[in-house]
Specification:
CATH class of one domain: Mainly Beta
Largest sheet: 9 strands, antiparallel
Number of helices: 5
Helix content: 25-40%
Order of helices and strands: HEEEEHEEHHHEEE
CATH topology of one domain: Pnp Oxidase, Chain A
Shape: elongated
Strand content: 25-35%
Structural class: alpha+beta
Distance between the termini: 25 Å
CATH superfamily of one domain: Electron Transport, Fmn-binding Protein, Chain A
Number of strands: 9
Length: 208
């Protein structure tokens, strides 16, 4: 039985021209295997001076236009993105021994998209978006708790909590997507999709 695709890689790489289809296939497998947060990814950004920063965020949607996550626009990552939209994402699924690395540029999602996702969140999470001054110094935790209680009083109707203007989503439109599979003796398998000037995806094999 053939366990390889036409490029000589493990059959899990399939034979697809569109990397989003392969991402969806791997993501669905991760949902079945990862115990916690299969949609967790490391997001790398940098300041306008090129100082890098990385943190874990959660993927909330994706399609052929990119990969979406949400955050406070005035957080460290939000401010860095405003200064420098170039960013990278890395998914690492230990249960599958696989990684996916994505490089591209971030663009803020439309208000309608942000509103729809915000309104799907739990009441406490929507209140938290108002109360947390993300990434700024917190003198004492009681200050945050008080702000949470104050916003609960302000927005008593749990079905009607407007989205803060400082909270929205970012969409990473990729210029490259690399799929990585762990191999014996560190002879890993790597397949990289690169978007050319005509918006066609070109496949390249990489050395481990």
């Amino acid at each position: 039985m053939n366990q390889k695709n036409t490029l000589g890689l493990n059959k899990c790489f399939l034979d697809l021209e569109n990397p989003f289809e392969l991402f969806e296939n791997w993501f669905e497998e991760a949902k079945k295997k990862e115990i916690n947060d299969p949609n967790a990814l490391a997001l790398g950004t940098s300041s306008k001076d090129g100082v890098p920063s990385v943190r874990m965020v959660l993927l909330k949607d994706f399609d052929n236009d990119g990969f979406i996550f949400y955050t406070n626009l005035n957080s460290q990552k939000g401010n860095e993105i405003k200064e420098n939209p170039n960013a990278t994402m890395c998914f690492h699924w230990k249960s599958l021994l696989r990684q996916i690395r994505i490089v591209g540029k971030l663009k803020q999602v439309d208000d309608e998209i942000a509103d729809a996702y915000y309104n799907s969140r739990a009441y406490e999470s929507r209140i938290g978006a108002w109360a947390s001054r993300q990434s700024t110094v917190l003198e004492k935790r009681d200050d945050l708790i008080k702000r949470i209680e104050d916003f609960k009083k302000k927005f008593k109707d749990q079905e009607n909590v407007p989205r803060p203007k400082h909270w929205s989503g970012w969409n990473l439109k990729p210029s490259s997507i690399e799929f990585w599979l762990d191999g014996d003796n560190r002879i890993h398998e790597r397949l990289k999709y690169i978007l050319d000037e005509n918006n066609n995806w070109i496949k390249k094999l990489l050395n481990p």
